[in-house]
Structures are given as C-alpha cells and as structure tokens.
C-alpha cells in the first residue's frame, strides 16, 4: 500500500506527542494487539461447522457487521469462496424477508453478535429468525463474558465465542467478530492479519508508515475547523462497503465533546465511489465550500484484462479512442484525471492511497491504517476515541419507549 500526500503538516512536536500517546494507549486499548493474535482457536472452531452448511448469516449491527462485510465484499468478486455470507443489520421487514428468501434454514449457520448482549436491533431480528429455526446447533453467539447473551446461550446449550478485552465494536473487525464469519466463508484470515501486522510494525518501528500517518493526522487536526469534512473517493466497486465501515469508524470515534473543554468537535466522513460519484458529488468538491479534504483510493492491478471492443459506432466515431482499452486502465485514468483537476484548485487538501491488488493482505493493511489514523486524530483533537455517548443516548430513549408500550 502506497500513500502520497499533497499537503504537509506544520507541527513536528504534535507528531511526537501523538505517537507517544498511542504507544501508551496500547496498554489499555485492545485492537492494537489483534494483528498478533493466535488464530488457531478460531480456525478450530470453524472446522467444527458441518460441511452441510452452505450459508453463514451474521445477525448484528454497526461494528458487529460492517467490518466483516467490508472485507467480504472486497474479496468476493475475485475469489471463489466456500460459503455465501449475508448480514442481517436492519429492522426493515422488507430487508429481513428478502435476505431470508436466500437462506435455506437447514443449511444456514447464524452468528449472533452483540458486545453488550442486549442490542435491541439484533435481538428483534434474532427472535424472528429463532421462530423459524429453533435448533440451537444452528447458532453461535459472540459477546462479552458475563453478558446477558452469554447466559442465554449457555442456557440453550449453544456455542459461545468471546470478544477480546477492550476492543470496541467499530475496531473489532480483526477479532472474532470479523474473523469467524470470514474464515467460515473461505477468506484467508491469516493473510488478512499479515497485512494489518505489516502496517503496525512499520508504524511503531518508525518505518515509512510512521511519517505518512503522523503527518496526515496532524494536518487533519490542525485544520479540522476549516476542513471538517473528509471524503474517501474509492475507484473500485469492491471498496463500497469499506467506505461504509470508514464512515462508522470516523464518525463514531471523532464526533465528540473535547476532553478538556466544552467544545463540540469532529470530522464528518463521506464515502464516495468512482466513477459514478465523479458525475455528482465531485461538483460539490470542485466548486463548493472549501471545507473538504479528499483521499483517493485506487487499485494498481485489478488482475482483469477485460477490454473495450474495437468497435466503431455510427455518429460516435470520436469515442474510438476507447477501443482496445482495458477497463482497469480506464478507471485509473478517470481517477488520475480527477486528482489532476483538483490539484489545479490549489486549496483542496488531498492524498492518494494505492492498493497493489485485491487481496486479503491489502484490505487488512487498509483497515489497520485507518484504525491507527482514527486513534491519532482522536488524540490530536482531544477526544475520547473509544466511547460513543451520543449513540448510547438514543439507545436509552428507545429502551424507555419500549418499556412504555
């Protein structure tokens, strides 16, 4: 993974301060250790699922599903996987029944994921599915030790797996939450963690990732009042759900009261996919309010040589320049052209991330890169990156309303 910045931060002292804080944070925040974990127990568990199971279904919301979905949708188009993977994330009844229509209830294993063990959305969906399939052998529950969900799972004699200590939902994709469903579908989770480990080592050992991440984080923090909107512009459909994961990670981690003041701060995340958003949202970036930074993500080698045919169309001869051009080259030319156009604007901060190819290792690197970036920016803008009181407030009100019914 290569990252090229078209801007520079000012404060080297802030870089050192942020790095020292992140080094210290490793002692209490669990996600930093995930690239180094022993995946033997996860693989052993996955081998216990019968071969008759053809579909894996995750029942979970937010951090319980978005990360695994991002990896699955990135890898699925280029790799023949052993099982299909579906995500029950919404209480929309149309969505629930549309997904169920794809699942043979006797050939589907359900992973019910809730850190707290009492997530309203998750258990409303679970109760409905349980009414259709009441055999506990078709369920595995992933939760914190001692949660109500653990007690329920043990009561019905279903399988229970646990989250590592001090790993929040939006940082949990490289834990059991993401690794179990991905491994069950045939995704190489060892390679996924290898990619994350590479970024971790090259940051904490002060390799090239160290300078790249710190300069970017300090720039965002120094300019977060002016450039309060951060856009990912990903030029591959395979990254659509990665963008959704990033929106949760960035928004839920950085939109807070500052720890040492009463100010509200945050950086608003927006996920865009090229080239379609090139024909819509790009106009706002190009000529709208100068409050946006942009990160372009492109894939260097799609390993796909599908080519535009050498066909001349009457009255459209001017488009013969497309003939014999690989689509992979065209989409990257589109990306490069937009970058060049934005650079001409001078006052739009942007950078580019180039992924070599669509592999587990590369998406693992990208995920851990963004987790580290989030932690650094959170430290620099003085927020608690790992809580979510705004989200919890809505949950409390919902539970109160349900009690009143």
TrEMBL record:
The active site is at 252 (proton donor), 279, 395. It holds the Pfam family PGI. Keywords: Cytoplasm, Gluconeogenesis, Glycolysis, Isomerase. CDD domains: SIS_PGI_1, SIS_PGI_2. Its main location: cytoplasm. It is an enzyme of class 5 (isomerase). It catalyses: alpha-D-glucose 6-phosphate = beta-D-fructose 6-phosphate. Its EC number is 5.3.1.9. Catalyzes the reversible isomerization of glucose-6-phosphate to fructose-6-phosphate. Belongs to the GPI family. This is Glucose-6-phosphate isomerase. It comes from Sulfurovum xiamenensis.
């Amino acid at each position: 993974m290569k990252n090229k910045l078209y801007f520079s931060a000012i404060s080297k002292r802030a870089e050192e301060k942020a790095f020292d804080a992140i080094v210290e944070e490793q002692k209490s925040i669990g996600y930093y250790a995930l690239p180094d974990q022993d995946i033997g127990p996860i693989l052993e568990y996955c081998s216990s699922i019968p071969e008759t199971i053809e579909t894996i279904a995750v029942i979970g919301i937010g951090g319980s599903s978005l990360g695994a979905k991002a990896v699955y949708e990135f890898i699925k188009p280029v790799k023949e996987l052993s099982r299909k993977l579906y995500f029950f994330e919404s209480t929309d009844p149309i969505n629930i029944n549309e997904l169920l229509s794809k699942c043979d209830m006797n050939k589907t294993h359900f992973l019910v994921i809730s850190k707290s063990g009492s997530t309203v959305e998750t258990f409303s969906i679970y109760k409905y599915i349980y009414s259709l399939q009441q055999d506990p052998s078709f369920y595995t529950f992933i939760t914190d030790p001692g949660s109500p969900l653990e007690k329920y799972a043990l009561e019905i004699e279903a399988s229970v797996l646990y989250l590592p200590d001090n790993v929040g939902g939006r940082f949990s994709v490289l834990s059991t939450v993401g690794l179990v469903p991905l491994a069950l579908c045939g995704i190489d989770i060892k390679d996924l963690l290898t990619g994350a480990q590479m970024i971790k080592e090259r940051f904490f050992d002060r390799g090239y990732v160290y300078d790249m991440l710190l300069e970017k984080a300090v720039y965002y923090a120094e300019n977060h009042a002016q450039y309060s909107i951060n856009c990912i512009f990903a030029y591959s459909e395979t990254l659509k759900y990665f963008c959704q994961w990033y929106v949760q990670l960035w928004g839920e981690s950085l939109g807070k009261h500052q720890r040492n003041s009463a100010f509200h701060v945050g950086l608003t995340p927006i996920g865009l996919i090229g080239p379609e958003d090139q024909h819509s949202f790009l106009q706002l970036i190009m000529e709208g309010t100068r409050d946006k930074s942009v990160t372009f993500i492109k894939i260097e080698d799609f390993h796909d040589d599908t080519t535009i045919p050498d066909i001349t169309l009457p009255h459209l001869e001017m488009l013969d320049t497309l003939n014999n051009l690989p689509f992979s080259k065209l989409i990257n030319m589109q990306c490069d052209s937009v970058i060049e156009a934005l650079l001409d604007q001078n006052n739009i901060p942007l950078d580019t991330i180039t992924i070599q190819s669509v592999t587990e290792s590369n998406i693992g690197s990208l995920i851990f890169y963004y987790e580290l970036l989030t932690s650094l920016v959170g430290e620099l803008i003085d927020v608690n990156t790992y809580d979510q009181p705004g989200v919890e407030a809505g949950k409390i009100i919902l539970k109160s309303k349900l009690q009143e019914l």
